[in-house]
Design a protein that fits this description.
Elements lengths: L1 H32 L7 E2 L2 E2 H42 L2 H22 L12 H19 L1 H11 L9 H12 L5 E3 L1 H6 L1 H8 L6 E4 H11 L4 H20 L4 E4 L9 H12 L2 E4 L2 H9 L4 E3 H7 L9 E9 L5 E5 L5 E5 L8 E12 L2 E8 L1
Parallel strand pairs: 3-4, 3-6, 4-5, 6-7, 10-12
Antiparallel strand pairs: 1-2, 8-9, 8-11, 9-10, 11-12
Amino acid sequence: MLNRILKLTIVVVFALTGLILTEYLLPYISDFFGYDLYDNGFFGIALATIVSGAVGIFVFGGLGVAVAPVLIYHIMGYTERMAIVLSKVPTSDILVMTLGIGIGLILANLLGGPFSHLPIIGPYIPLIFSLVLSIIGAKVALRKHKDIVGFFNRSIPSLKGAVKPAAVKSLALSDRLYSKNKLLDTSVIIDGRIIDILKTGFLEGRLIVPNFVLEELQKLADSSDNLKRAKGRRGLDLIQEIQQKNKEQLLVEDTDFEDLNEVDAKLVKLAKQTEAVIITNDFNLNKVAEIQGVSVLNINDLANAIKPVVLPGEEMNVFVVKDGKENNQGVAYLEDGTMIVVEGGKKLVGENTAVVVTSVLQTSAGRMIFAKLK
C-alpha cells in the first residue's frame, strides 16, 4: 500500500513538473517560430496551451512511472536505515535533540528575518541561519542532556495535582536505577573477557568505543612488533564480534579532543562530559579516573570478586610447581590462577600435597593465599 502511494505521488509530481515546464517554455517556442500560439482555443484557454500541457503531462508522467521503482527503492532503503539508527538512540536523547533543534529554528527565524530583504542573498540567509543554529541547538542540547532532563524532572512536582505522589516516586526510582553508558578502553578490549561478561547479561547500558581507542588499536595492529600487532588485531576482531552479536548495544563515538594527546586523558574527559563509566584493566587509568570523580569498572576487580572464598584453616590439595622467593617456600596455583605460597613446600616441588590455609591477601592486582603443610 505504501509503495502504491509513493508511486502515485512520484508520478503526480513528475506530471505537474511537465505541465509547469511546458507552460513556461511555450512563449519561447511561440517567439522562435514567429507565430502566435495563443490565437485559437476553447473557453479562453489557448489550444497550444492545452496540447503542450497534455504532452508535458504525458511525457513527464511516463518518465515518473519509469523512474518510480528506483526512487521508491532508494527512499525505502534510506528511511529503513534512518529508522535503525534512530531506534538505537535513547528516547530521551531524541526528545532533547528535538527541543534543541526547535530552539535553534526559532532563533534562526528571529535573526534571519531582518536579512531576508537584502538583494540577491537575502532569501538565502534565513536558510543558512536555520541550518547552522539547528545543528548547534541539537549538539548543545545533547551535551546538556542531564541538565535539561533534570529541569523537567524538578518541574514535575511543582505541578500541583498534575502528578500523583506515587508517580513521582516511581520516576525517582527509575532515575536511580538508570544504567549508565560504559566506555571501553584499549586494555579491556585487548583482554577479551568483556565479551564473555556480555554473554552473561551482567553488563547493562550502551557500550561506547571512542574513535581514538579504535585508532590506538589500529596503530597496534599495524605495528612491526609481533606481540603488539597480535594485540591490536585481537582487539579489532573483538569489536567486530561485539558488533555482530550485540549490535544494538555497541556505539562507536567520534568525539575527539585535539588539545589532548594521551588516550587515557581523552577517555577520562569524555567520561566526565557524558557521565559514563569507564571499563578498564589499566590500574593507573583506574586511579586517575577515580581521582577526577569518574566511576570505573575494573575487570580484574570483578574477576577477584567472583573467585571462591577461601578461609584460614581450610584444607586443600595443591600441586607445588616451583620454589618460592623466600627460603623453603613452594608455589602452587588454583584453577582460577590464584597463587598459593606454601611454607615448607620447596622440598615438594612437582608433587601433590595437602595444605592448610593460614591467611589470604587481597589486592586490586589479585589475590594471594598463604598456606602451610598439613
